[in-house]
Amino acid sequence: MAFIGDEIANCAPAFTLEEWSSAMSQQRRRLKHLKSLEQRLAEDSKRLREQAKLLPPGKVRDAILKKAMQAETGAQVSEWLSSPDLRSPK
User: Fold this and answer.
1) pLDDT reading at 68 higher than 90
2) Does 1 score more than 60 pLDDT?
3) Distances from the Cα of 41 to the Cα of 30, 34, 59, 71, 85, angstroms
4) Of 79, 88, 9, which is closest to residue 40 (Cα–Cα)?
5) Following DSSP, what letter does each residue of the chain receive, concatenated?
6) Which residue in 19, 72, 73, 87 has the fewest CB atoms around it within 10 Å?
7) Who wins on pLDDT, 36 or 89?
C-alpha cells in the first residue's frame, strides 16, 4: 500500500545537522532607524508625489500615487496605534 508523500520519503533532508546548526547560530542583523516610521512614510509619500508630478497621466503615475496614498495611510495608522489615548475608529 502507498500513501501520498511516499515518493519523497526517501529523499535526502534539506539541511544536514551541521548546516542547520550553523544557520541557527547566525544572528539577525539589527537596523537602527534614525527617524520614526511616521517620518519615513511621510518622506516616502512626498517623494512619490513629486515623482508622479513629472509623469504624464497613465498607469505608472496612478501606481505611484497609489503607493503615496498607502504610505500616508500607514503613517496615520501607525500614529493612531501609538497614541496614548487609543480609541477605535468610528
Assistant:
1) yes
2) no
3) 20, 13, 22, 5, 22
4) 79
5) ---TTGGGTTSPPSS-HHHHHHHHHSPPPP---SS-HHHHHHHHHHHHHHHHHTSPSSHHHHHHHHHHHHHHHHHHHHHHHH-TT-----
6) 87
7) 36
Q: Which residue has the cell 535526502?
A: 12
Q: Give the whole-angstrom CA distance, residue 74 versus residue 42.
A: 9
Per-residue CA distances from 1 to 10, 12, 45, 67, 86 (Å): 16, 22, 60, 54, 59
12-67 per-position pLDDT tens digit: 666 777 776 666 667 777 888 888 889 999 999 999 999 999 999 999 999 999 99
